[in-house]
Structure formats: C-alpha cells, structure tokens
Write a structure and sequence with these properties.
- It is globular, with a radius of gyration of 17 Å.
- It has 3 helices and 6 strands, in the order βββαβαβαβ.
- The chain is an alpha+beta fold.
C-alpha cells in the first residue's frame, strides 16, 4: 500500500472464513492461505466479520480453568487460563517469536490461535530456517491454527 493506492468502497463488511478446515493452517489477516495449500470448502462452516463488536464482558463466560503453557517460568509465575488472550511485547530480536513457538508446542490446549504482528521487514520467508522448520513441524504435529502477521 502507498499514498497512491486507490481505495474502492464495496459497501460490504470484510469477512473471513471460519471452521475446522483452518486448523493447522497459516493464513493472512484476510483469511487467505499462506502455506501454499488451497482452502477446502468442506472444512469451512461459514464466515465471520473482521470488525465485529466484541461480546460484552458481562456476557462472557468466566475464565476459571488454568492452562499449562509448557514454559515453567510462565506457568509458575503467571497463571494463564483456558480462553484467555495473551500478548507478548518487546523490542526486535529478544525472542518473542521463539517464545510463541515454544508456547504453541508446549501448551496443553486443544487449539492455539496465534496472531503474529511484525513490521513488513520481518517476513515469514526471512525467519531463521530453524524457527520456520520448528513452526511448520508444530503445525503438522499438533494441527494448531496459526494466523500470522496482520501486516500482509
């Protein structure tokens, strides 16, 4: 995108596909596959608006079941619960992506949804080979749902 990019209003909400067919997939913020495989319509049960209003805090179910992240320092000092959102913030190069990968591979959750937001300079294909291979193996082994950077 640039200041010269033409924007045309469609009059429609932006929607993304939802369903079990996205488990283990790498998708963009627009719901487009980034892992080289097409989306199967059999695994998509519908669509959901990207800009939906969040549910009222009073209507949400209570978060009461602790979850293990697989990182002893976090599990011992920072209890996280099933259904809770977790943010990891820090300077470039301090290991946020590696920590996220370790949490995805070590958690006892059935499904982990990961959104990784980075500057455009940090592209998935520029990640160290060791990290890329580890994430791809985690996705194959654990069938995690991974939604990468929102800058794409």
């Amino acid at each position: 995108l640039s200041s010269l990019t033409e924007v045309v209003a469609t009059g429609k909400d932006q929607l993304v596909a939802v369903g079990p067919g996205l488990l283990g997939r790498v998708i963009s913020a627009f719901g487009e596959p980034l892992d080289g495989r097409p989306l199967s319509p059999d695994g998509i049960v519908g669509s959901y608006p990207v800009n939906a209003y969040p549910p009222s805090p009073l209507e949400r179910s209570l978060i009461s079941e602790p979850i293990q992240l697989g990182i002893r320092a976090l599990d011992g000092l920072l209890t996280c619960a099933r259904g809770q959102r977790v943010g990891i913030f820090g300077e470039p190069g301090v290991g946020k992506s590696i920590l996220l990968s370790d949490i995805v591979s070590g958690t006892d959750a059935d499904v982990a949804v990961v959104a990784e937001m980075q500057s455009p300079a940090h592209r998935l294909d520029e990640q160290p080979v060791r990290r890329r291979d580890a994430v791809e193996e985690d996705l194959r082994r654990n069938r995690r749902c991974d939604a990468p950077r929102l800058d794409q």
